[in-house]
Design a protein that fits this description.
The protein has 14 helices and 19 strands. It is an alpha+beta fold. Strand 5 and strand 6 form a beta hairpin. It is globular and about 70 Å long. The structure holds flavin-adenine dinucleotide. The site of flavin-adenine dinucleotide (FAD) has 35 residues, from strand 3, helix 5 and strand 10.
Length: 468
């Protein structure tokens, strides 16, 4: 690749091309997880679909390793590659709501905060995650679970169509009616199949939710976990609650007496009136009165942004995940043992419920096959200080190894680091892996898009054409 090739590429873009000599390069190459440092050859800040097509052609012609960056939030740093081309979508940012159809058309570089901002004005929301700074691209393509999962399903269950630039530079629409095999694959198969420049989502009536955390001391954790395990299995779909082990941050709204205390808690989200929410939760309050609660009606975007200030970019981050069908008593004992050893203020363990509406799709209706699991578990070692890198990593690994035998086999791809291995990816997709590999062979036979939780193109299916 000559400098004149790069200049020609730059001249074709409406957006920008950043090289290592550019003053912005150090900032632009940063990964959300400060444990990871990558040095790409070029960062193409694409302004529109035409720029993405140009970037894909350039990457192919020069045989470059290519990564796709949506919101840039991936903890494994998969939005940025070493020594290759980053196709950055952060300038492709729009969220157009159709209030009559209750849909929203979202640019490939949006974060969920962008979408919530747009939809909230119409009393609508799309099911996403629990943090507003997460990218729409990566979260959606991996599945997407959060505060609205039990009522409205995973994010992919609300995806109606996507615009995709394929590895050969062609632009296609993927929906139930067009390129339906591709549409199937992108609903869980990650960034393996092309660059999604736009998503069309079904939104739902969500405006003020009753939400927030309730916390208890670790001495009550066994009782609370057992209560929660029964409750969430049968609770109305309007209520979502993820279980957490955490260390209480030293600031408002938490009382000083609880600062730095290791505790367990549930973060609730009820999409309905406060009286109903209180009725549903009153048995819990009578069973074990929370040591602290911050449960109140609030605009949905406020809930989505509640933890943004805690989990800012630039922290050291190591996490491991599993799907869980049942929470055995022995598993609860192990959880509490490892929670007592939470190594830093930001480190945590979450159990996200994935039952309710998320169980309505069949196991092979999308690649996201763990439709019979009850929770998605994630063990997260986090700290601002690079000196604590090994400590948080060792804690997360030990915790995960102790609990893994009680898991369902695979884990959520969006909660994996880079390089967890093909076995983990296969375990996660189960029987859907083979079909994903076949579709990959059709749309990306040379594995051009490989900086991701990679699905290898099926050798036998290669060259069958785009409508196979
Ligand atoms: C603090 C934090 C909280 C989180 N909370 C949740 C949660 O509540 N629920 C949940 O489900 N997940 C959650 N996640 C995980 C999150 O879904 C993944 O980290 C996801 O990869 C982030 O997407 P992104 O676009 O920001 O990432 P990026 O780093 O930009 O991209 C990651 C990968 O996604 C693919 N990709 C991204 N955009 C596109 C696109 N437009 N077209 C094609 N491929 C694309 C690429 O393969 C890329 O390598 C959280 C992550 C963090 C760090």
């Amino acid at each position: 690749m000559q400098q004149e090739d790069i200049s020609g590429f730059k001249a074709q873009l409406r957006g920008d091309l950043i090289e290592p000599t550019d003053g912005r390069y150090e900032e632009e190459r940063k990964v959300y997880n400060a444990m990871i440092s990558r040095k790409p050859r070029l960062i193409a800040k694409c302004a529109d679909v035409a720029d993405v097509i140009t970037a894909v052609h350039f990457g192919r012609q020069h045989d470059l390793r290519v990564s796709i960056r949506g919101g840039g939030h991936n903890a494994g740093g998969l939005g940025v590659c070493d020594d290759g081309l980053v196709i950055d979508l952060s300038l492709i940012k729009y969220a157009h709501v159709d209030p009559a159809a209750r849909t929203v058309r979202v640019g490939g570089g949006c974060t969920w905060g962008d979408v919530d901002h747009a939809t909230h004005a119409f009393g609508l929301a799309v099911p996403s995650g629990i943090i507003s700074t997460t990218g729409v691209g990566g979260l959606t393509l991996g599945g997407g679970m959060g505060h609205l999962t039990r009522k409205y399903g995973l994010t992919i269950d609300n995806l109606l169509a996507a615009d995709v630039v394929l590895a050969d530079g062609r632009f296609v629409v993927a929906s139930a009616d067009e390129n339906s095999d591709l549409f199937w694959a992108i609903r869980g198969g990650g960034g393996n199949f092309g660059v999604v420049t736009s998503f069309l989502f079904q939104a739902h009536p969500v405006q003020t939710v009753c939400a927030g955390p309730m916390l208890w001391g670790l001495d009550q954790a066994a009782d609370i976990m057992k209560w929660y395990r029964e409750f969430i299995a049968h609770a109305p779909e309007e209520i979502n609650g993820f279980f957490a082990f955490l260390t209480v941050p030293p600031g408002p709204p938490f009382p000083e007496a609880l600062h730095f205390k290791k505790m367990c808690g549930v973060v609730w989200c009820y999409n309905g009136p406060l009286e109903q929410a209180n009725e549903i939760l009153s048995p819990l309050r009578s069973f074990r009165r929370p040591a602290f609660e911050f449960f109140a009606p609030m605009p949905f975007p406020m809930l989505q942004g509640m933890f943004d200030g805690l989990y800012t970019p630039g922290l050291q981050w190591y996490w491991k995940a599993d799907f869980v069908k049942e929470l055995a008593d022995e598993a609860i004992t192990l959880h509490i043992k490892h929670a007592a050893e939470l190594p830093t203020l930001h480190s945590t363990m979450h159990l996200y419920p994935i039952n309710g509406a998320a169980h309505k799709a069949g196991k092979d209706e999308t690649p996201w096959g763990y439709r019979d699991a009850t929770w998605s578990e994630v063990i997260v070692g986090v700290d601002p200080d690079p000196a604590n890198r090994d400590r948080i990593t060792a804690w997360a690994k030990n915790y995960w190894e102790a609990l893994h035998p009680y898991g369902a086999g695979g884990g959520y791809v969006n909660f994996m680091m880079e390089g967890e291995g093909e076995d983990r990816i296969r375990a996660t997709y189960g029987n859907n892996y083979q079909r994903l590999a076949q579709i990959k062979a059709v749309y990306d036979p040379n594995n051009f898009f490989r900086v991701n939780q990679n699905i290898q193109p099926d050798a036998l299916a290669r060259g069958k054409g785009h409508d196979a």
